[in-house]
Amino acid sequence: MNYLGDWGMQFGLLGAGFNSFGSMEKLKENPLQHLFEVYVQANKEAEHNEDMKHAAKDFFRQLEQHESQAMSLWQQFREITVKEYQHIYKRLGIHFDVYSGESFYQVQTQEVVRELQSRCLLKISPKGTGVVDLSPNEDMSNICTLVRSDGTTLYITRDIAAAISRKEKYCFDEMIYV
């Protein structure tokens, strides 16, 4: 199974960067190279520009809310990258039985959050983030953030949803991440 990092704040940054610096013409000419250039430029911009950081967070929030324009752009980005990955894997003689990704578990993340809330395990931190207390003394000295203050999820949230889904689907004894 190939589990792609096809969701998250990196796509918020790519989407915001594309809205600022991208070109559909260049995307058609050399798709992966253009996405790379846009991502690098957006990252550099975000280092010193709060507007770019805000735009990236906003784009990702739009993705999580399934707003059509953001989803359409994201879908194009995903198709470009998966096609390139498959080409590279083929050249290397690598075959995956299943292509999956973080995006597949968007809906399930909300189920994970609700389950943790129902068990009183998800707490709201002073910063407004949804966290699980992992400290042995339950003193919030060691927490895992699962939900940002704006309601968007993190990789770990989607990873938990993916692990639950895999366990239910494949009924394995052991799952190995490589």
> What would you call the structural class?
mainly alpha
How are strands sequenced across the largest beta sheet? 3-4-5
Q: How many β-strands, per DSSP?
A: 5
How many helix segments?
7
**Weakly predicted, low-confidence segments:** none
Shape descriptor: globular
Query: What share of residues are in beta strands?
Result: 5-15%
Summarize the helix and strand pattern as letters: EHHHHHEHEEEH
Major β-sheet, in short? Answer: 3 strands, antiparallel
Radius of gyration: 18 Å
Helix content: 55-70%
Mean pLDDT: 94
Question: What gap, in angstroms, lies between the N and C termini?
Answer: 10 Å
InterPro entries: Arg-tRNA-ligase, ArgRS_core, Rossmann-like_a/b/a_fold
Family: Belongs to the class-I aminoacyl-tRNA synthetase family.
Pfam families: tRNA-synt_1d
Function: Catalyzes the attachment of arginine to tRNA(Arg) in a two-step reaction: arginine is first activated by ATP to form Arg-AMP and then transferred to the acceptor end of tRNA(Arg).
